[in-house]
Amino acid sequence: MTLIVLGVGGAWAGRLEALAPFKWYFVAATAVLLGFGFYSVYFRSSQCTAGPQCTVCRTGRGVKVLLWTATALAIAGLAFEQIEPLLM
Fold first, then answer.
1. This prediction's pTM
2. Within-domain flag for 4
3. Do residues 41 and 59 touch, judged by C-beta distance below 8 A?
4. Rounded mean pLDDT of the chain?
5. Where are the alpha helices (DSSP H) in the chain?
6. I need a surface site. Which of 1, 29, 56, 80 has the fewest CB within 10 A?
7. Is 83 inside a domain boundary?
8. In this structure, is residue 14 part of a structural domain?
9. Is the confidence at residue 27, as pLDDT, over 90?
């Protein structure tokens, strides 16, 4: 059972090499989306007034934690690519 799972996973991972020429497009899209996330969380003015139509006026702590986690993962992915040749 484990070999089947590893075999299917290996075959799937091998096909990801076809996306290598588009790496910088993915990096740019990630940067744009993270930038929009930071803008939405920290800089967008809330047009919400406390009342029955609006229950949450501020961005929650959980959203900020997830945004910073996604940013750290994106940076770690780019850093690992640069460090990987040194590990061999």
1. 0.70
2. no
3. yes
4. 79
5. 2-15, 23-38, 61-87
6. 1
7. yes
8. no
9. yes
